[in-house]
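Bumping my old thread because nobody answered last time. Still need a sequence for this structure:
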């Protein structure tokens, strides 16, 4: 596999390696299964992992992604991204602001920001972000999100008007990822549909194929 440029978000499924879903499997094992299936971008989301274990996981997952030619982004934690040499971060309203993340990370790494609509996407662009995560696209059981479900139509409007590449998140599954791709979205973030599949790598392969098909207009 050709390695993507480290400062550009690859198109397609965007996989979260999350400690709240399938919590008994170590993060490094989950990440290994995700990249074995062809994940080109992995976000390490650690909400429950204590700091020293989180640093170790950030280092191991970053190294593992790099060997596989995938990008590794840290959820929330700019400090861990720097220490691990990760490819960037994803921040939301409860995290450091994107301007601060950019100041710490410099221009060569990715900063993603959660937004709920077009106004947020424009603000994220002005704050120096590289892409926006837009959700909740569909209903999700993985996280209680304090914003209404967008649905495909409103999401497509955001994709159309956004000055930054859009990654949809929330309730993205194998059966609907093609519809997300068909809106022109740059990416589709997936947590439970991949991590709770019996065979994580096989599910990632299917997600990649379905995104490609949907994006091709089929
Ligand atoms: C790609 C992507 N989009 C949105 C989010 C949500 O981030 P945030 O709002 O900071 O919420 P937490 O993930 O920290 O609970 C995301 N993680 N990834
Ligand atoms: C982490 C997260 N953020 C969201 C948002 O809308 O901001 S939805 C979400 C969880 C998405 O999980 P799943 O793919 O299992 O539905
Ligand atoms: Mg966050």
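Sorry it took so long. Here it is:
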């Amino acid at each position: 596999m050709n390695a993507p440029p480290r400062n550009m978000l690859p198109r397609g499924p965007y996989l979260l390696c999350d400690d709240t879903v399938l919590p008994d499997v170590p993060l490094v094992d989950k990440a290994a299964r995700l990249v074995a299936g062809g994940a080109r971008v992995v976000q390490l989301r650690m909400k429950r992992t204590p700091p020293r274990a989180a640093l170790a996981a950030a280092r191991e997952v970053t190294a593992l992604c790099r060997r596989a030619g995938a990008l590794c982004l840290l959820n929330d934690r700019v400090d861990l991204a720097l220490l691990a040499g990760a490819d960037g971060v994803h921040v939301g309203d409860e995290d450091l602001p994107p301007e601060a993340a950019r100041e710490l990370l410099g221009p060569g790494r990715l900063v993603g920001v959660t937004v709920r609509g077009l106004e947020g996407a424009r603000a994220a662009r002005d704050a120096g972000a590289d892409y926006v995560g837009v959700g909740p696209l569909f209903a999700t059981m993985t996280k209680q999100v304090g914003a209404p479900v967008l649905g495909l139509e409103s999401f497509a409007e955001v994709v159309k008007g956004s000055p930054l590449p859009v990654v949809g998140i929330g309730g993205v599954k194998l059966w609907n990822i093609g519809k997300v791709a068909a809106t022109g979205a740059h990416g589709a973030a997936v947590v439970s549909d991949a991590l709770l599949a019996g065979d994580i790598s096989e599910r990632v392969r299917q997600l990649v194929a379905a995104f490609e098909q949907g994006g091709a207009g089929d």
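The mean pLDDT is 96. Let me know if any region looks off to you.
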